[in-house]
Amino acid sequence: MENLYVIVFAAVLPAFLLVAYIYWKDKYQREPLSQIAKGVFYGVASAAVALVLELLFQVCGLVSEDPANWMQAVWKAFIGAAVPEEAAKLFMLYLLLRHNRYFDERFDGIVYAVCVGMGFAGTENIIYLFSYLGDWQSVAVSRAVFAVPGHFLFAVAMGYFYSMLSFGDMSWRKAGRIFLVPVFLHGVYDSLLFVAGVSNLFVRVLLLLCFYYFCFKMLRYGRARIAEHLTRDRQDVRQVAFWHESDRIFGRRHEDKTPENNTKKK
């Protein structure tokens, strides 16, 4: 029984830490903890929805459980994993935010998307660790380093574009990016691993090097999107007073780029 609790703890800890990280990054008007918990719960529900979709795709013969070549591996990565999982997470994010009065900043979209994504990742982690009980420690470490941060970055992309659309920073013609960008990132991530699994040693090593590089680039992309929305919120007229007080307390100086300030400078 003690091992059971240890395995569950190891499965959910990485997701919890990333939720705590994104919550800490939300400097202004942090979301209520009840909403954070609600977002994680919706993420757990999205894992169940995704599992049903994936099983449905397999039953219909759309996806092969054990790909025999690189084409089947890529197909499984995108159609068998990225599409149903990101669709389930986006659906739950929509349900979470459609009447949410706390969704009043651009960065909030990333916060809530990460909560959903980490609820999904934590649930998926539990399933994986109990599927490999004989070697759960190494699986836990591997997924903590790659899989959970991967879902975190997919969620950052989804939340970023969700807020872009919601706050009028992106036209409806580009609304598909909310779904397509996370699917692309997720699909490429899984494709590199799945194709490596059906390749010879040389190709496998090459693909793993590409995978590490892709993870590095995706990390930089995610950090840039987080910084971008924090900057947009910082320039919001309603938040100027808070940031001035923050700068006074911490002794930082930042250029005020609000419309009023720019007018005065001219």
Radius of gyration: 20 Å
Bin the helical content. Answer: over 70%
- Secondary structure category: mainly alpha
> What multimeric state do the chains show?
single chain
Query: Low-confidence stretches at least 5 residues in length (pLDDT < 50)?
Result: 253-266
Number of spatially distinct domains? 1
Strand content: under 5%
Would you tell me the overall average pLDDT? Answer: 89
- Which shape, going by the Cα principal axes? globular
* Biggest sheet statistics: none
Topology pattern, helix = H, strand = E:
HHHHHHHHH
**Total count of helical runs of at least 4 residues:** 9
Total beta strands: 0
The termini sit apart by 69 Å
Q: What would you note in describing this structure?
A:
With 266 residues, the protein is mostly helical. It has one domain. The chain has 9 helices and no strands. Helix 3 runs antiparallel to helix 6 and helix 4 runs antiparallel to helix 5. The longest helix has 34 residues. The C terminus is likely disordered.
Task: Provide a compact summary of the structure.
This protein is mostly helical and 266 residues long. Helices cover 79% and strands 0% of the residues. It has one domain (2-234).
Q: Keywords, please?
A:
266 residues; mainly alpha; 9 helices
Note the topology.
Blueprint: H1 2-25, H2 33-59, H3 70-97, H4 106-131, H5 136-166, H6 177-197, H7 201-234, H8 240-250, H9 259-265
Helix pairs in contact: 1-4, 1-5, 2-3, 2-4, 3-4, 3-6, 4-5, 5-6, 5-7, 6-7
